Q: What sequence folds into this?
């Protein structure tokens, strides 16, 4: 398995209906990928001589759960991994949706070689330590502040949060419960991974000692604990980590920014500044991969200690 700079990473591409791109398969052959349709909750792709329909994500209630491994918005076909992230139908009038999605064409898709994981094995870990995960279906769900552009991971207040990969703490937002109005965001931390992606942690209660803007962390390092910052603790909202993944061309310009648009939404809207030249992507496929790695590692530890 390749590692480092020569690792064959997939890419996100924007396409208009009828537009094609050419990508290399796992065997190094060229394969044409064409956007046939971009609908309300799905896209239709032609990959080589085959046509497939892909949903944009999971659309279900958190009480139903779903088994990790169920990556419905991505499939392996003709030596490629093809995924659908978002279409124009999920852009609203709010600056939040427009800036965070930052979609200029009909749809955003992911294309990469099917043979390889998203990242070199062992380079990333699941963001919640010692976790039993059964839910990942709220990417693109409609919520009070617009569209939900991340995945929520439920746990109790105080549950440890860890760095998903080696990187640098890019930005921190502290929410003052006594002063700030309920905004459904709360405390935020942005981690710039060595892989070039930016990982967002929201609602945490407190940070681990020594974690500050500019801090270097390694995969699995404690960065803080789960909390309920940003929304009234009396509300019937599960305690959770709101986790996002951003593709940003100029990560050094990233900051937590908000805007009030009372004519559009009742809450302060988070804005991804245009000068970052970036967009949010569905973190669910990545989380599934990291959870699989973490689960296998935990199993090895149990077996090493004579437990089953």
A:
């Amino acid at each position: 398995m390749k590692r480092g700079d020569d690792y064959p990473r997939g890419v996100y591409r924007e396409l208009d209906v009828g537009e094609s791109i050419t990508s290399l398969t796992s065997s190094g052959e060229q394969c044409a990928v064409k956007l046939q349709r971009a609908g309300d909750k799905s896209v239709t792709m032609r990959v080589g001589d085959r046509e497939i329909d892909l949903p944009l994500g999971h659309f279900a209630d958190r009480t139903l759960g779903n088994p990790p491994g169920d990556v419905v918005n991505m499939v392996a076909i003709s030596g490629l991994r093809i995924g659908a992230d978002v279409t124009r139908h999920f852009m609203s009038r709010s600056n939040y949706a427009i800036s965070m999605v930052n979609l200029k064409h009909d749809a955003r898709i992911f294309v990469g070689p099917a043979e390889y994981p998203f990242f070199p094995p062992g380079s990333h870990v699941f963001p919640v330590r010692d976790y039993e995960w059964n839910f990942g279906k709220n990417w693109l769900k409609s919520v009070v502040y617009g569209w939900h552009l991340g995945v929520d991971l439920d746990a109790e207040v105080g549950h440890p949060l860890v760095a998903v990969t080696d990187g640098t703490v890019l930005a921190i937002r502290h929410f003052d419960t006594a002063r700030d109005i309920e905004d459904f965001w709360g405390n935020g931390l942005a981690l710039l991974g060595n892989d070039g992606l930016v990982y967002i942690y929201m609602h945490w209660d407190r940070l681990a000692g020594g974690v500050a803007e500019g801090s270097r962390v390694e995969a699995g390092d404690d960065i803080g604990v789960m909390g309920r910052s940003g929304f009234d603790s009396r509300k019937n909202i599960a305690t959770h980590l709101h986790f996002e993944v951003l593709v940003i061309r100029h990560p050094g310009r990233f900051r937590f920014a908000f805007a009030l648009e009372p004519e559009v939404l009742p809450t302060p809207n988070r804005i991804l500044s245009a000068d970052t030249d970036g967009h949010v992507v569905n973190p669910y496929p990545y989380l599934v991969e990291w959870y699989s790695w973490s689960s296998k590692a935990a199993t090895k530890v149990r077996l090493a200690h004579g437990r089953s």
